[in-house]
Design goal:
The complex is a heterodimer of chains A (about 850) and B (about 475). Chain A is an alpha+beta fold. Chain A has 28 helices and 16 strands. Chain A is about 35% helix and about 10% strand. In chain A, the strands form six sheets. In chain A, strands 3, 5, 6, 8, 9 and 10 form a six-stranded antiparallel beta sheet that branches. In chain A, strands 1-12 form a two-stranded antiparallel sheet. A two-stranded antiparallel sheet of chain A has the order 2-11. Chain B folds into two domains: about 35 residues, no CATH class; about 375 residues, Alkaline Phosphatase, subunit A (3-Layer(aba) Sandwich). Chain B is about 30% helix and about 15% strand. In chain B, strands 1, 6, 7, 8, 9, 10, 14, 15 and 18 form a nine-stranded mixed beta sheet that branches. A three-stranded antiparallel beta sheet of chain B has the order 2-3-12, with no helix packed on it. Classes of the chains: A alpha+beta (about 850), B alpha/beta (about 475).
């Protein structure tokens, strides 16, 4: 059948009586049956939706599709009547019937009246913005304490909290929950429930508190002290970040400050804090392949973007790398906007200025300056310059003849065109026949002192490159020694003054970069793996997340549709970008930040958060079990100067926390996971608490705080590091487990079996499994046997050789209670026949020892 | 604590209105996607390795994954390209200024060994691995495999875990999470590292990452037993029995005081399982019961100690599969200890390097496959022979070896559920890139899960805001190769 052209239809139908049209039956029904599958909530082909009035009249990417009164000018009609199979709608299935087409045209010509129904009203604005978590935090009018809110939900479920637990269980619970260590038998003996508030204050003031809670934070931020991937070399100076977190929690650093420092500590006198930014994996395997290199960098930035959003905001911004978020109102440009804030961040070490002996020397904050020149890559970006020649003139060095291991020159396409360039130099330092320092090493693509160039003259020299053809140059990167993993080996002979000039004809030169504006900070001094900062080039949206398909430029931004938009001047420095993002995250009208952190605290106290998806508050995350309680805690946090200890105190002093953990069949049928908190949910100790309490009870625990961690693996210098668990641990390894130097994705044989996160990916919520390997480790490992022996020795020293006294002391140290008669009877024969170390070994394996209730 | 392992939830009691994930309710509300919703196995914490039903009838019950670390060259083994002989030492047409992992490319270079037709199928395979080549009629080749990275670490990550990034659960962890095991006295998932050392990404190949630790692969081989498996020598059997009896009494009394908390019961049974595992795992590694003929077939007494070591590992793999272990990962090649020294990474002197590595792999691995076939075990066992990527048909400029090539390489399957004597997909005339039925590692994993009766789009675990899958958001079952 021949399809008439739209003009003809319009004419032919214009006489149809208006009342003959039933919008719902003849128009909306057609949309719903034939159009909405591609132009509706699931897909928005051509950015067009036809499932609600607001969308239909807004039109699609090519403008409005309905022009009321003028069907001939309406793209909608043109498309449903088109004879071009590429344009015709619907593209698949049968064509719309002539009657449907007629009705559509008549409806438009009659003014396209669209009576609103419930769906039209609901979709008048983006329904995704109605999600609970994006709404402002509202302090509930009713309810003054945690227990008020919990009680309300319990009442409506017909449930009751358990009675308060006994004083021994309570003190054990307080100690483990706050410090991660058990109380001593003497502390238990002295404790009465009346002292609860005071003991809570004392424990929160203990340095052990920060050590316990830092571990939880480190899980969330995927902190590890090695690079990951197959090289997985150690980062010798990553530990200061761990110490920073421990100290921040102990000092009750306001949470808003804590957030800002982790994103921009270089501006706030907290260098180690930005260890957060570069806490993730870094692929150190360099390659000549530009696509691989671009992907490696894109993955690095992805790690920073997604960890930042998940940690502080509970938002899965990582989902918007390749496409708009499928469930939350996060366009892909938000992803690249946040990425722009990190565009200048590079993995690596920098000076730890707070630890300098002479703190006065370099000013702590130099927001207006670019980073100082270092031995690693130093980058200069400039607006594209069409040129065939580039000259790098050295005007100053940190001492003697300057040295460069590689000079890279990038064109707009991201290729290092220096590799094929013809090179000339002012003169080369001579040191014998087999010199490691030659002109051809400047652009050989290999890093390190062994393949570098040294100028003939102290403090000066020049390199000139001629490219095979004119290039659009955008960037120069030069370095002294990039061979080290993380750190650099050679730090002498640095270029400290330079000019970069380009020329089309080698006659007219144009300067495009120099050391001007760089900080003069000395590189000598303690280093911290907290990232280096470079002037960022433009950020572009990568089509489908593919760095080889850059599209439009994206300005630094935060989330555009949640909270208030972030403001940032166009000429802001790299550091100001991060500061602006940090300020946006902690601004009082951001609805997420406070909710997310109080929920994390709740999660660790009760084993499950009010929102049980602690790093996803979006549409796919869990709904809060107690929304008002969540907002109550969030507003308490902000109203009390973002003091986390204030929230800890509120939770710890609640009745909910102090109640018994007894299981009740009746309550369990209504709330099997005890999310309403009709009891304190008991659980297995986490790996760290288990190890620490074994050491604590055996008397071997070393409470030395801070500094580089201890290693659970044998030393190994292979360039692809091989991790072999040490066969035996000694006093060096008897510190708290938070101080283990944590390699990425490498778990030791023993505690790795206890659900330790491996820091490959953030893990805001640990699993808790029970396996036979755990049993074998606790029964047979050298560590367990050593602890059992040390505990036996301690008991004998403390109470002598009387069997009953030994058993009582063992129970006191491990369970903080007296042995019952039946237990005494059970233990005595083993002790008599096989000795005390066997008894202590058995008790370490008991359920009571490993359980927190 | 993750709700997955809560026995309370496992027992199926109602969770009132507090359902944990909105997605499920969203899907329910919309009344759609009922057959696309995540499927998470129900795990009894007291028996994490208990066998669990597949999503649909499986074709295979067990998996043997043989992983050649370092990138085994496909053009020198399974992917016959006559053009390479014809155009030996000529530039590769269209290559231009091709820059691969280590840099510029030299000329096309013919395979380091000649090719011959094999078996009834006449499949052309090189002489590098002559014993394996004889099994051509049982092999199902995928010649069009591609990887997302040309670097060993990320690429091994991808073959092992589906993701090029660190921190995702390995294939075997997913399978044991989904299906448990047929043997309760051994781990569900065993990794057998090469005698020369662990593969390039080490334990990440058998990591459970964010899955519960119960599904971590347990690594041991003929050289190195399960850590802490044996009862220390200083404890007499009587002392050990007395310890276990006391432990049981204390735990039983404790359980009585804490009724309803079955995590405690789970831990009691874990100790019983541990005791049985001490016996069962020790038996697996004890090869003395194998006949002299079998040992000779595998080469366990070979004078080449690396070959003998790998042969013992192969024999162990058979013994584990015989015992019903769900997923066995057998590694050939270790971490890098110099380019191409410990593994198949033949950049500079591929002739010499492959002359070292090939004999270690060939006879023992072929013996294992013949043995599995002879015992009828290939009816239930799916074998996947994989590597992280292929190698270039050219030699590197100024070197006598081949650079990394993720654009096209070969893996093969054998056994349960796959078509024998089949070749799927193809690379171009030089073996440089996949051009026909281009396949991805996602496809391979999807196919693997499919053969085990698992829907790769639905088997999932929630972590850090995302419902995670082995195949991310990709993967198509390679239906052509399913028997």
């Amino acid at each position: 059948m021949k399809i008439p052209n739209p003009c003809f239809i319009a004419l032919a139908l214009s006489h149809l009586p208006l009342q003959a049209l039933d919008f719902e039956r003849e128009v909306r029904a057609t949309f719903n049956q034939r159009c909405v599958s591609c132009h509706g909530p699931d897909k928005q082909r051509g950015d067009l939706r036809l499932d609600a009035k607001s969308f239909a009249f807004k039109g699609g990417s090519e403008g409005p599709v309905i022009v009321p009164g003028q069907s001939a000018k309406s793209a909608l009609l043109a498309r449903i009547t088109s004879s071009d199979p590429d344009l015709r709608m619907p593209p698949k299935g049968e064509r719309l019937s002539p009657a449907q087409v007629k009705a559509m045209a008549a409806w438009i010509d009659a003014g396209a009246s669209w009576p609103e129904n419930a769906q039209d009203r609901a979709l008048a604005s983006d329904p995704r913005l109605q999600h609970w978590a994006w709404k402002p935090i509202q302090r509930p009018a009713q309810g003054r304490s945690i227990d008020d809110f919990l009680q309300r939900e319990l009442n409506s479920a017909g449930l009751q909290m358990n009675p308060p637990t006994d004083s021994r269980t309570l003190l054990r619970r307080l100690h483990f929950s706050i410090t991660g260590l058990p109380p001593s038998p003497e502390q238990v003996a002295d404790f009465t429930v009346a002292q609860k508030a005071r003991v809570i204050d004392e424990l929160l003031a203990s340095p052990r508190f920060g050590e316990k809670w830092a571990r939880h934070w480190l899980d969330v931020v995927r902190f590890a002290e090695s690079d990951g991937f197959e090289m997985n070399r150690a980062r010798a100076n990553a530990w200061p970040y761990r110490d920073y977190v421990i100290e921040a929690f102990n000092a009750d650093k306001p949470y808003n400050r804590f957030v800002r420092e982790q994103l921009a500590g270089d501006a706030l006198g907290a260098d180690a804090a930005t260890g957060f930014l570069v806490g993730g994996a870094k692929d150190r395997v360099g390659s000549k392949d530009p696509v691989l290199t671009a992907n490696q960098r894109a993955d690095e930035l992805h790690d920073m973007v997604s960890t930042t959003a998940a940690t502080f905001l509970g938002v899965t911004l990582n989902c918007a790398r390749c496409h708009d978020h499928k469930f939350d109102p996060i366009p892909t440009t938000d992803y690249y906007g946040v990425l722009a804030a990190f565009q200048g961040v590079q993995h690596g070490e920098r000076l730890w200025r707070e630890k300098l002996a002479d703190k006065a020397a370099p000013p702590l904050a130099q927001p207006s300056l670019r980073p100082a020149i270092g031995p690693g890559p130093n980058e200069e970006n400039f607006v594209p310059q069409l040129a065939r020649f580039l000259r790098f003139t050295i005007t100053a060095s940190s001492g003697s003849q300057p040295c460069i291991d590689e000079l890279e020159v990038y064109n707009k396409g991201g290729a290092n065109v220096a590799r094929q360039a013809r090179v000339k130099v002012s003169g080369t330092f001579e040191d014998g026949r087999h010199s490691k320092h030659r002109m051809e090493f400047i652009n050989d693509g290999r890093y390190g002192n062994d393949r570098s160039w040294i100028s003939k003259e102290p403090g000066r020299g020049w390199i000139e490159m001629e490219f095979t053809q004119p290039q659009e140059l955008v960037r120069v990167i030069f370095s002294r020694d990039r061979s080290g993993s993380g750190g650099q080996r050679f730090k002498d002979r640095l270029v400290t003054g330079y000019r970069v000039e380009v020329s089309a004809d080698r006659k007219q030169w144009k300067q495009v970069a120099s050391e001007a504006g760089r900080s003069k900070t000395s590189i000598e001094g303690p280093q911290v793996y907290a990232g280096t900062f470079q002037t960022p080039g433009p950020t572009r949206r990568n089509h489908r997340g593919d760095p080889t398909q850059p599209r439009e430029e994206v300005a630094p931004s935060a989330l555009s549709r949640i909270g208030r938009p972030m403001t940032l001047a166009a000429n802001s420095s790299e550091q100001q970008r991060r500061l602006a993002l940090a300020d946006w995250i902690v601004s009082s009208d951001n609805p997420l930040t406070a909710r997310v952190i109080v929920n994390r605290l709740w999660h660790h106290y009760f084993g499950c958060g009010l929102v049980d998806t602690p790093s996803d508050f979006g549409f796919n995350g869990g709904r809060p079990s107690h929304p008002q309680l969540l907002d109550f805690l969030a507003s308490e946090l902000m109203q009390n100067g973002w003091s986390l200890k204030h929230i800890h105190r509120l939770i710890l002093n609640s009745r909910a926390f102090a109640q018994g953990s007894q299981w009740k069949a009746e309550a369990a049928t209504r709330d099997s996971q005890s999310r309403l908190l009709w009891r304190f949910p008991p659980r297995r100790l986490e790996a760290e608490a288990l190890r620490d309490s074994m050491l604590s009870s055996s008397g071997l625990l070393d409470l030395k705080m801070g500094g580089p961690g201890f290693d659970l693996f044998e030393p190994n210098e292979n360039y692809v590091k091989v991790y072999v668990t040490k066969a035996q641990y000694g006093p060096a390894e008897y510190r708290r487990m938070v101080y283990q130097s944590k390699p990425r994705t490498m778990l030791d044989d023993f505690f790795g079996a206890f659900d330790c996160p491996d820091a490959g990916q953030p893990q805001p919520k640990r699993t808790s499994s029970t396996t036979p390997l755990q049993a074998l480790n606790l029964l047979n490992s050298r560590f367990a046997l050593d602890q059992a022996a040390a505990l036996a020795k301690r008991i004998e020293t403390e109470v002598g050789k009387a069997p009953k006294a030994q058993i009582q002391r063992a129970f006191a140290l491990l369970y903080q209670r007296a042995a019952r008669a039946d237990e005494m009877a059970a233990c005595e024969p083993l002790l008599a026949a096989h000795g005390l170390p066997l008894l202590t070994r058995a008790l370490y394996n008991s359920n009571e020892f490993i359980r927190l209730d | 604590m993750n709700h997955l392992l809560h026995r309370r939830q496992f027992l199926g009691q109602s969770v009132s209105g507090l359902s944990s994930l909105a997605l499920a309710s969203l899907l329910r509300d919309d009344g759609l996607l009922a057959n696309e919703a995540p499927l998470r196995p129900q795990i009894d914490p007291a028996r994490p390795y208990a066998p669990r039903p597949a999503h649909f009838a499986p074709r295979a019950k067990q998996v043997l994954m043989i992983f050649c670390s370092g990138a085994l060259s496909h053009v020198d083994t399974w992917d016959y390209k006559p053009e390479l002989f014809k155009r030996h030492n000529q530039p590769m047409p269209g290559a231009g200024n091709l820059i691969t992992f280590q840099g510029e490319q030299g000329n096309l270079i013919k395979p380091i060994r000649d090719f011959k037709p094999r078996g009834q199928s006449g499949k052309m395979i090189s002489d590098l691995l002559p014993n394996l080549a004889e099994l051509a009629d049982d092999m199902c080749f995928i010649h069009s495999m591609t990887a997302k990275s040309n670097t060993h670490g990320p690429a091994e990550n991808q073959m092992g875990t589906g993701f090029i990034l660190d921190g995702f659960p390995s294939c075997g962890a997913w399978v044991s999470y989904a299906l448990g095991s047929e043997n309760q006295n051994l781990p569900a998932f065993v990794a057998i590292p090469d005698p020369r050392g662990v593969p390039q990404i080490g334990p990440r190949h058998w990591s459970s990452a964010f899955l519960p630790a119960a599904f971590q692969g347990t690594a041991f081989n003929a050289q190195k037993p399960i850590p802490n498996l044996a009862t220390p020598a200083q404890f007499s059997p009587a002392a050990e029995q007395a310890t276990r009896d006391l432990l049981r009494r204390l735990n039983d009394a404790h359980l009585e005081r804490n009724p309803g908390d079955s995590d405690l019961a789970a831990r009691i049974s874990a100790y019983e399982l541990a005791a049985r595992m001490q016996l069962a795992a020790a038996e697996i590694s004890d090869l003395r019961g194998e006949s002299a003929a079998t040992r000779t077939l595998y080469g366990t007494e070979d004078s080449n100690s690396n070959k003998a070591g790998f042969a013992k590992n192969c024999l162990m793999a058979r013994r584990l599969l015989e015992q019903g272990v769900r997923f066995v990962q057998l590694f050939n090649g270790s971490y890098a200890m110099g380019e191409g020294v410990g593994n198949w990474d033949g950049h500079k002197t591929i002739h010499q390097q492959y002359a070292v590595h090939a004999p270690i792999l060939d006879q023992p691995c072929a013996a294992l496959l013949r043995d599995l076939k002879a015992r009828g075990m290939l009816r239930d066992t799916l074998v996947a022979f994989v590597t992280e990527f292929g190698r270039m048909p050219t030699f590197q400029k100024g070197a006598n070896g081949r650079d990394h090539n993720p654009k096209g390489f070969t893996v093969w399957l054998m056994g349960a559920g796959v078509k024998p004597a089949t070749s799927h997909g193809a690379t171009d005339e030089f073996g440089y890139q996949a051009v026909e039925k281009v396949s991805t590692i996602y496809d391979l994993h999807a196919t693997l899960l499919h053969l085990l009766g698992l829907n790769h789009e639905r088997l999932s675990f929630y972590n850090n805001g995302i419902e995670r899958r082995l195949t991310d958001v990709h993967g198509h079952v390679l239906k052509d190769i399913v028997a």
